Amino acid sequence: MSSVAIKTEPEARPARDMTSAYSNRRTFAIISHPDAGKTTLTEKLLLTGGAIEMAGAVRAKGNKARAKSDWMEIEKNRGISVTSSVMTFEKDGINFNLLDTPGHSDFSEDTYRTLTAVDSAIMVIDAAKGIEGQTRKLFEICRLRDIPIITFVNKIDREGRDPFELLDEIEEQLALTVAPVIWPVGQGGLFKGCYDLAANDFISAKGAGTRHFEGGLDDPALRQTLGEDAYAAFRDSAELAAEGYAAFDPVAYRDGHLTPVIFGSALENFAVDRLMDFVATHAPEPRPQPSDKGPVDPSGDKVSGFVFKVQANMDPKHRDRVAFVRFCSGHFKRGMKLDHVRSGKAIAVSNPIYFVAQERSLTEEAYAGDVIGIPNHGTLQVGDTLTEGETFRFTGLPAFAPEVLRRVRLEDTMKMKQLRRGLEDLAQEGLVQVFRPTFGSDWIVGVVGPLQLDVLASRISGEYKADVTFEPVQYNVARWIRAESEVKLKQFIKDNTTQVVRDRDDRPVYLCRDEWDLRYIIERNKEISFDATREIV
Ligand code: G4P
């Protein structure tokens, strides 16, 4: 696996064409279960968009990393993941900002938060497997924010499940109306290509390009092209697809109630250009973003944005960090001073980074929908709002209750300071959540997936020079607690001191053994809310 060089002296990128304002932005993510083909599709989109010249260029970030050792290898090459956190490319006057969502189920927190920074998503489904666990989880996050979703049923070039069965599964499991728009002609060994049901274009799998059929499904030329048997089977299924399911409705799609479905193959590059056209034509431009003072409209002339991701220690020697900011309004120009609402201080953004495939360079300007990286030394945290002289705060960035809890044991007690620093930094980055018990001095850390613990130990050792191990605690469930009545909350905390810890922001968190215990305590404390998510402020 080769590491991608990060330019320390980025070359200045020329200012973008001033006429291309925010309405040309399409900021989106790909959600999928590992192995469904997200990396392959990303690569083909970048190829189609001219951002890379060769297949294989984004492969290094692929999720061949189920095994720990592989993951560590990827971790060493973290440069790759930062440059691919956002991939910007331009085609036919549309600026695509593709935000990477790490596919590994262990890193879902980061993934979830990335979804707060997009306006739409592509859901990739393996034609042989249908909806899988991680897809469903990510979909639920999209639904919380009514993010419109285009479904790409991938790997149609090989044996898979019946397309109708897949459509029904999406409709039933995700409670979404499905509208097939690109339909397969045969499948597996009999796969001949894809057919655009609205445009009446046949995209040949045999390398014969795309052909339009004026007469649609009844066009004799289509019969001739496909051959009698294939045509008969295709015609029946296409007719059923068109008549038995909803027609594409752009409004229902944008409202998040309907998903257009494209059958294709990322590997063979079938229907990927159609998918891209679809995003360009129908996916929403930057949408208003929620704030504590009401939605912020992208047409607003004052710059605003929020940090949805922080990546620390790109270069351990310099303790640098890159904060990823999604702009929500205004016209940002390099060198601008923006207000950091949390601290009330102004920060000059003199080195905004713009990402193209594996390169990063300086950008001169950005509009709503764009994502830039701001190098900083810890000022910017996930959830922070940047504005041009205003004091509102963007809302809705979630933190999730950890599913794995461990006590941190330091090998060398002299390294307490390093450990604290490391835990604070990595908690800010969102890799881990840190809890402080009422009694005792040992930290408790919480992660969403156990693999994060390996990463945590490796990074604390490598970047902060403190060796740690993790010990099981008797708790497996954590919930943020709150109550209408301050007195009731205080009483509950007092009655449960050993089980209440404090998070980084000093919020009380209740720990218990399992879901059964949780149900028991909820039942007996109706005035207390036990939250599995909380908003980052
Ligand atoms: P991921 O990022 O979602 O985890 O998936 P990735 O793109 O890495 O794809 C997972 C595997 O599926 C890869 O095979 C990839 O080549 C294959 N694949 C992706 N799209 C298609 C498709 O449209 N058709 C077919 N037939 N296969 C597809 P692999 O053997 O695991 O890796 P590799 O050796 O090909 O890199």
TrEMBL record:
Subcellular location: Cytoplasm
Binding of GTP, residues: 32-39, 100-104
Keywords of this entry: Cytoplasm, GTP-binding, Nucleotide-binding, Protein biosynthesis
Pfam families in UniProt: EF-G_D2, GTP_EFTU, RF3_C
InterPro entries: EF-G-like_DII, EFG_III/V, G_TR_CS, P-loop_NTPase, PrfC, RF3_C, RF3_dom_3_sf, Small_GTP-bd
Lineage top rank: taxon: Bacteria
Principal subcellular localization: cytoplasm
TM spans (from-to): none
Stretch list, region Disordered: 1-20
Domain called Tr-type G: residue spans: 23-287
Signal peptide, first to last residue: none
Function: Increases the formation of ribosomal termination complexes and stimulates activities of RF-1 and RF-2. It binds guanine nucleotides and has strong preference for UGA stop codons. It may interact directly with the ribosome. The stimulation of RF-1 and RF-2 is significantly reduced by GTP and GDP, but not by GMP.
Record PANTHER family: PEPTIDE CHAIN RELEASE FACTOR RF3 (PTHR43556)
Family statement drawn from the similarity comment of this UniProt entry: Belongs to the TRAFAC class translation factor GTPase superfamily. Classic translation factor GTPase family. PrfC subfamily.
Protein's name according to its UniProt entry: Peptide chain release factor 3
Organism, scientific name: Fulvimarina uroteuthidis
